[in-house]
């Protein structure tokens, strides 16, 4: 039987194995014959060869030394070589190593080589080496996986150790990367507390940076949402292994307003999206609901209220109701503070859509005033270097002729990034896509999107109904009243049949509002007023009399009543609108 010690190259292969990679029985079973006498001068030449030292671990972690004999090229060892193990102290039950001497082996060609204890030490890292390189290994392991750490240490430092050795020292040094539930709970709790204070957070766990996205995935694997973790949070000390700090301001090389290019603005938006998800400020949800900010779950509502107030201000400007317009824009400014503090993922969409709508109505002055106000408030609340503050400042400084193109490209960025982060059929992604379709006046794209949603999601899925409602709104603005009426009737039918699966109040209310506009345009004025009165009633029941959309519709009702000569009803609508406005100011 040829054995692994039959040549110098095989001996080198043995030395490349780790001490724990071969056991005692593996070693002695490499030989299958009873050897001749150990004193045989014929076999050993001029003198017997010293034993080969081999170390292995015993059950009690004490190091034992195995001594093999002589000519490994031609001689097999007995299964139990006498007196070749270090002597066992009967009292301590530990191995007492014998003194090592240089070891020789003879190759098949008779040439002898010497392997010394220092040779073996140079192959494998000693405990002194581990201590000397501890800081470097700790740093590397914090940013890399173990195989890469091993490769770097061996190639750059000449530090050679087995996986088992690394894992043993990693555990001993407390560098375990396995996430623990108390630490994950503490990070969620700490992140929410700091977000409510307007602070961003980075976390280290056992000196390793941990992105909040990893924390979210940890709880997702357990079938638990971040909301549920927050609800279960209790006041308790932060584990010692968890460290929290505020990340530095991203770029001191921020270009001034007059040097900001569209490309730089778009990169800023991309960075803002990525950082918001990574820090845990924005939370990914199931596909049927919009992503939200942990700073304020009502952030989306604040954004929609801001939009309604902004639109109403523009309408009042058109009708030369300047005093009420000024008060309304002041209310919009106050609402924008709540919106900006919340940093809801949909807020940027709402701002861009509002500015684009005002541009389409040639309301340059109001749009610019709103943009400047938003940028000033954002700098105050979020800081001058915050990505949203920078973007708003740059947008307000752009030539008016370039605004629409910038807004369109921003929607492209929002759609692309959210598709990659949460999926192309996620509610937030569809929200941005609907806004882009409105901006581009792309009726064909909306129709295709509705067909796709009905095919993939079904007719009664909330996302499908959202697209249907947006298509209805779009056909109204384009003057396709017959199609809009059909879409509205279909939507009301869906809602009535499946109230338990959808939001009947929202879809019914908006459908009646759009149907009212269609009927007024078609000359069915009495029916139009009835539908709009019903829409006002439903919206008030759901959101209260101070709702911004209620004020918008009351203003429209006032105009319609006046055109029909129903002056008393027009006055009543105006009084109700003013009363609602007073409620809004005190809310």
TrEMBL record:
It holds the Pfam family Clr5. Gene3D superfamilies: Tetratricopeptide repeat domain. It comes from the Eukaryota. Residues 127-177 form the Clr5 domain. PANTHER family: CLR5 DOMAIN-CONTAINING PROTEIN (PTHR38788). This is Clr5 domain-containing protein.
């Amino acid at each position: 039987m040829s054995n692994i010690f039959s040549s110098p190259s095989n001996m080198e292969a043995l030395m490349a194995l780790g001490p724990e990679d071969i056991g005692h029985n593996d070693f002695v079973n490499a030989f299958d014959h009873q050897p001749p006498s150990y004193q045989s001068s014929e076999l050993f030449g001029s003198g017997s060869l010293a034993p080969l030292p081999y170390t292995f671990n015993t059950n009690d972690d004490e190091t034992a030394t195995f001594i093999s004999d002589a000519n490994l090229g031609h001689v097999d060892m007995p299964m139990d070589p006498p007196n070749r193990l270090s002597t066992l102290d009967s009292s301590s039950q530990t191995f007492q190593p014998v003194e090592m001497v240089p070891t020789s082996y003879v190759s098949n060609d008779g040439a002898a080589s010497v392997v010394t204890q220092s040779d073996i030490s140079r192959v494998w890292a000693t405990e002194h080496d581990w201590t000397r390189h501890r800081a470097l290994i700790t740093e590397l392991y914090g940013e890399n996986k173990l195989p890469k750490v091993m490769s770097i240490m061996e190639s750059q430092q000449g530090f050679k150790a087995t996986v088992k050795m690394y894992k043993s020292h990693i555990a001993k040094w407390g560098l375990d990367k396995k996430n623990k539930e108390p630490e994950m709970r503490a990070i969620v709790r700490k992140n929410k507390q700091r977000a409510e204070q307007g602070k961003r957070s980075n976390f280290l766990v056992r000196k390793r940076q941990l992105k909040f996205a990893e924390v979210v995935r940890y709880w997702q694997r357990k079938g638990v949402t971040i909301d549920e973790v927050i609800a279960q949070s209790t006041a308790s000390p932060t584990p010692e292994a968890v460290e929290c700090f505020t990340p530095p301001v991203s770029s001191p090389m921020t270009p001034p307003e007059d040097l900001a290019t569209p490309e730089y603005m778009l990169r800023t938006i991309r960075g803002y999206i990525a950082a918001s998800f990574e820090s845990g400020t924005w939370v990914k949800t199931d596909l049927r609901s919009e992503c939200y900010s942990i700073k304020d779950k009502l952030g989306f509502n604040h954004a929609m209220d801001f939009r309604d107030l902004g639109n109403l201000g523009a309408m009042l400007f058109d009708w030369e109701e300047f005093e009420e317009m000024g008060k309304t824009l002041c209310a919009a400014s106050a609402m924008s503070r709540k919106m900006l503090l919340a940093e809801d993922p949909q807020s940027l969409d709402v701002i861009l859509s509002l500015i684009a709508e005002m541009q389409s109505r040639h309301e340059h002055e109001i749009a610019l005033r709103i943009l400047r106000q938003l940028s000033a408030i954002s700098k105050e609340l979020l800081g001058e270097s915050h990505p949203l503050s920078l973007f708003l400042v740059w947008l307000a400084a752009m030539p008016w002729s370039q605004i629409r193109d910038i807004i369109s490209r921003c929607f492209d960025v929002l759609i692309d990034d959210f598709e990659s982060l949460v999926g192309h059929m996620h509610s937030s992604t569809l929200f941005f896509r609907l806004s882009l379709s409105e901006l581009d006046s792309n009726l064909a794209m909306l129709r295709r999107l509705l067909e796709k949603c009905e095919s993939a999601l079904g007719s009664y899925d909330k996302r499908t109904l959202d697209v249907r409602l947006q298509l209805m709104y779009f056909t109204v603005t384009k003057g396709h009243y017959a199609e809009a009426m059909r879409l509205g009737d279909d939507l009301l039918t869906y809602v009535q049949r499946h109230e338990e699966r959808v939001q009947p109040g929202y879809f019914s209310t908006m459908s009646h509002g759009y149907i009212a506009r269609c009927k007024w345009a078609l000359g069915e004025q009495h029916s139009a007023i009835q539908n709009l009165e019903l829409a006002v009633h439903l919206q008030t029941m759901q959101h209260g009399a101070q709702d911004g959309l209620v004020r918008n519709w009351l203003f429209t009702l006032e105009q319609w009543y006046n055109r029909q000569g129903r002056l008393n009803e027009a006055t009543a609508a105006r009084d109700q609108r003013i009363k609602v406005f007073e409620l809004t100011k005190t809310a």
